[in-house]
Amino acid sequence: MFSDLFSALAVLCFAVLFLILVLRRFRQPYFIAYIAAGVLLGPKLLNTIPDTAVVAELGEIGIVLLMFSIGTEIDLHHLSQHFCRPFAIALVQILLSALCMYALGMQLGWPASRIMLLSFIISLSSSAIVFQYLQRTGEIKSQLGIITCGVLLMQDILVVPMVLSLNFISGSNTSFFELVKVCIGGMLILLFLRSAIKRRIFNIPMRRELIADHDLQVFIGFCICFGMAWVSFWFGLSPAFGAFAAGIVIGQDKATRWLGKSLIPFRVFFMAFFFLAIGLQLDVVFFSANAGTIVLVAVSVLIINSLANSLLFKLSGNSWRDSIYAGALLSQIGEFSFVLLTLAASLGLVGDYMHQITLAVITSTMLLSSVWLAIIQKLIYKLPAQED
């Protein structure tokens, strides 16, 4: 068993390294290498990593670590001052997605459950991709970056009622206690953040000792990150949301700047597993047989989401240039859409064909997002100065 695991990890590392070096020459994001490695090493091709469940669980750890580290970079006071705009943009964007899916579903004769599911799926953008891009470009602390991060955070919060809605329409029994627990958990975390806005409510002990002790830094970081993630999960919320809230609070203290840096290697490693899990689930034979439909739908989603988000950002007071840029950033379908799709499949809301076509479209929008963003950026640079 150990030899199998060792062999799989060795092959995985070499495959990812090779693909990263190739993509580096073309200045493409590394998550494409992770997805491609998953497809290559998955059960449909080389079958080096047949157990997708373990990889998916490791990927969830990567999302939690990413959201925690991003939270440490967020200016909490700035975010609180711009709460209404991100919430309004996220909410209206979901409503627009629902209208589009309703119009399409009526033409194709889809059931209401499928219309609702697809509305939820296309309305969620990728926090992992957008946050990493904004960090790399240094725009995460800009006004546009703050609002964009706020929209992503609101989307992550709205995943909770989406999950409850899917359980309800499937006929699954959700107890009254679980509903109350979710509401209480959401209110407690919001109150926690509100208290953090008014005053610093957390101080890490043994600060001087921690500066020179890397082991203590790592495990205190893990305790804070995974502790809040576990609390959030227990209340029925997303673990990533709890980790993000913990990161925001910790980030207020300048003495904890070492915290995010200490966890970067772990974040990179486990985030690779998240995108790897996406590639492992992708059926290459199905994709090649339906490539035309998948690419057409994926490009349509990128265009529709870009237009909708650009309009909403413009109506919220941003310039056309910033609005178009933000629309392109949020155009792809996100990682929590995989969570909703997996839940819908387990509840019997989608069949095998719809599951695979949706999975392929989500993956395609992620893979095409960097190309789409480059196209939009070239368009933005051609806009006259008075459009800002």
Number of strands: 0
Taking the alpha carbons of the first and last residues, their distance comes to 60 Å
CA-based gyration radius: 21 Å
Q: Just name the CATH architecture of the largest domain.
A: Up-down Bundle
Report the sheet-strand fraction.
under 5%
- The level 1 CATH classification of the largest domain is Mainly Alpha
Which consecutive residue ranges, at least 5 long each, have pLDDT under 50? Answer: none
Inertia-based shape: globular
Number of helices: 19
Order of secondary-structure elements: HHHHHHHHHHHHHHHHHHH
Average pLDDT, all residues: 81
Roughly what percent helix? over 70%
Which fold name is given in CATH as the topology of the largest domain?
A: Na+/H+ antiporter like fold
Describe, in short, the structure shown.
Belongs to the monovalent cation:proton antiporter 2 (CPA2) transporter (TC 2.A.37) family. It comes from Flavobacterium nitrogenifigens. The chain is built from 19 helices and no strands.
Describe this structure in words.
The chain is mostly helical. The protein has two domains: about 1-50; about 50-385, Na+/H+ antiporter like fold (Up-down Bundle). It is about 80% helix and about 0% strand. The chain is built from 19 helices and no strands. Helix 6 packs antiparallel against helix 18 and helix 17 runs antiparallel to helix 19 (about 350-380). The longest helix has 30 residues, at about 350-380. The radius of gyration is 21 Å and the shape is globular. The mean pLDDT is about 80.
